[in-house]
Amino acid sequence: MTGPIPSSLEDCKQLTTLNLSSNSLYGGIPRELFSISTLSVGFDLSNNKLTGDIPFEIGGLINLNSLSLSNNRLSGEIPSTLGQCLLLESLHLEANNLQGSIPDSFINLKGITVMDLSQNNLSGRIPEFLESLSSLLILNISFNDLEGPVPGGGIFAKPNDVYIQGNNKLCATSPDLQVPQCLTSRPQRKKHAYILAVLVSLASVAAVTMPCVAVIILKKRRKGKQPTNQSLKKLKNFLTAHKNTLASYSYRS
């Protein structure tokens, strides 16, 4: 089957499953499809040639258990409204051109068992709340552009059930996760070296400056004493002169 997906499918108000996978469908996903609230078992448009964003209205599928839009050419960010599909158990968005971060609203997917977001252009850190999704059995976020440390609990404590390889900016504390290990000691050493360098510089400046300050203070003190010495000398001369005068006067008398 080829061509765009007909938006008239919204009139099928009793649909519980819609499977149009593995065809040659192209164009965008009609937002009208997400008004079919009876869709509960599955919504599968995988392995086609669909383009454009995932419509914001996807959050209307509040009864849906399984969603697959994998292996298409979808772009843009994963809509946060997907977190409103509270009954979702299986989510496949792999092999598209999706970007942005993993939505925080995914914390609401308490019943999710399989989540595959691999082979996209997702960026940012891996959300720590993924640790708390206790029902999650398989997590595949490999071959994206994720960065930072990998959480250590929940699904991430099971190396055989989580796939994170192909993210060159990730690091982990466990060597079993197929990404480089996080180096915690090196930044600390750099910090200590930086502090030591600053202290040495300050000490050097102080060693050069203090003698100069001392010399300046000493000179000021000496200058302050000079007027006093000169005044004493003048007083002494004055007394001596008057003493001679008085002596001469007494002699005449």
SS-derived structural category = alpha/beta
Number of domains: 2
Mean pLDDT: 85
Shape category: elongated
Largest sheet: 8 strands, parallel
Corresponding CATH architecture of the largest domain: Alpha-Beta Horseshoe
At the first level of CATH, what is the class of the largest domain? Alpha Beta
- Cα distance, first to last residue? 149 Å
Number of helices: 1
- CATH topology heading of the largest domain: Leucine-rich repeat, LRR (right-handed beta-alpha superhelix)
Low-confidence regions: 245-253
Q: Beta fraction of the residues?
A: 15-25%
- Can you say what the CATH homologous superfamily of the largest domain is? Ribonuclease Inhibitor
Helix percentage range: 25-40%
Strand order of the largest sheet: 1-3-5-7-9-11-13-15
What is the CA-atom radius of gyration, in angstroms? 41 Å
Report the count of strand segments.
Answer: 15
Series of secondary-structure elements, N-terminal to C-terminal: EEEEEEEEEEEEEEEH
Essential attributes:
single chain, 253 residues, alpha/beta, Leucine-rich repeat, LRR (right-handed beta-alpha superhelix), 1 helix, elongated
Task: Compose a concise summary of this entry.
With 253 residues, the chain is an alpha/beta fold.
Structural notes for this entry:
The chain has 253 residues and is an alpha/beta fold. It has two domains: 2-184, Leucine-rich repeat, LRR (right-handed beta-alpha superhelix) (Alpha-Beta Horseshoe); 185-253. The chain has one helix and 15 strands. The chain has one helix at residues 185-252, and strands spanning 2-3, 17-19, 24-27, 42-44, 49-52, 66-68, 73-77, 90-92, 97-100, 114-116, 121-125, 138-140, 145-149, 162-163, 169-171. The strands form two sheets. An eight-stranded parallel sheet has the order 1-3-5-7-9-11-13-15, with no helix packed on it. Residues 245-253 have low confidence and may be disordered.
